[in-house]
């Protein structure tokens, strides 16, 4: 089910994404610090490992997210195509992308909660160690299901919008490139 290199590309993308996510999240909870100050503070206090805190939890969120989103997007497009007896238009693909992204966001929200808690935890704490199952258990024990799905609606809304834009644009670009390829001598 893993196209060649798909998982590897997610793992590599997280090498770039995680440090920026750590800095962004800490900036969001810090009332007065500037981004560079936060970045410098992380390096000074925790070293390079501090910038990569939450790396494993991010990868563990991204893989199932993608394994839900992309097959669901393709299935929804195929169903819509079959129902209308022709290929979907780019806007229809975008709608399918919005639904697929929103659903994938919903089902992976507990992993996102764990990732966020790990990234924001006080250095040296048990949460900062990055054990995703331990963090999920602790959230479940203290807050129950509502804690595991904290922020689910804003996350679904943002990712649905992203799915609409990016997957719709991808499909439009793909269609244009295929059309240009057919017109070439």
From TrEMBL:
<dbReference type="InterPro" id="IPR018108">
    <property type="entry name" value="MCP_transmembrane"/>
</dbReference>
<protein>
    <recommendedName>
        <fullName>Mitochondrial S-adenosylmethionine carrier protein</fullName>
    </recommendedName>
</protein>
<dbReference type="InterPro" id="IPR023395">
    <property type="entry name" value="MCP_dom_sf"/>
</dbReference>
<feature type="repeat" description="Solcar">
    <location>
        <begin position="4"/>
        <end position="79"/>
    </location>
</feature>
<comment type="function">
    <text>Mitochondrial S-adenosyl-L-methionine/S-adenosyl-L-homocysteine antiporter. Mediates the exchange of cytosolic S-adenosyl-L-methionine, the predominant methyl-group donor for macromolecule methylation processes, for mitochondrial S-adenosylhomocysteine(SAH), a by-product of methylation reactions.</text>
</comment>
<keyword id="KW-0677">Repeat</keyword>
<keyword id="KW-1133">Transmembrane helix</keyword>
<dbReference type="Pfam" id="PF00153">
    <property type="entry name" value="Mito_carr"/>
</dbReference>
<dbReference type="GO" id="GO:0016020">
    <property type="term" value="C:membrane"/>
</dbReference>
<feature type="repeat" description="Solcar">
    <location>
        <begin position="88"/>
        <end position="176"/>
    </location>
</feature>
<keyword id="KW-0812">Transmembrane</keyword>
<keyword id="KW-0813">Transport</keyword>
<comment type="similarity">
    <text>Belongs to the mitochondrial carrier (TC 2.A.29) family.</text>
</comment>
<keyword id="KW-0472">Membrane</keyword>
């Amino acid at each position: 089910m893993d196209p060649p290199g798909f998982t590897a590309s997610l793992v590599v993308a997280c090498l770039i994404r995680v440090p920026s996510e750590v800095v962004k999240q800490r900036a969001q909870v810090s009332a007065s610090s500037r981004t560079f100050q936060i970045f410098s503070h992380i390096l000074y206090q925790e070293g390079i490992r501090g910038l990569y805190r939450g790396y494993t939890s991010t990868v563990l969120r991204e893989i199932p997210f993608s394994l839900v989103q992309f097959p669901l997007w393709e299935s929804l497009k195929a169903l819509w195509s079959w129902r209308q007896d022709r290929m979907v238009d780019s806007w229809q693909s975008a709608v399918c992308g919005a639904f697929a992204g929103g659903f994938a966001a919903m089902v992976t929200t507990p992993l996102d909660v764990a990732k966020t808690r790990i990234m924001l935890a006080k250095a040296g704490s048990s949460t900062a160690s990055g054990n995703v199952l331990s963090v999920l258990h602790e959230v479940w024990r203290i807050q129950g299901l509502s804690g595991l799905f904290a922020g689910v609606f804003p996350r679904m809304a943002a990712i649905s919008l992203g799915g609409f834009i990016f997957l719709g644009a991808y499909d439009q670009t793909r269609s244009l490139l295929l059309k240009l390829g057919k017109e070439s001598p």
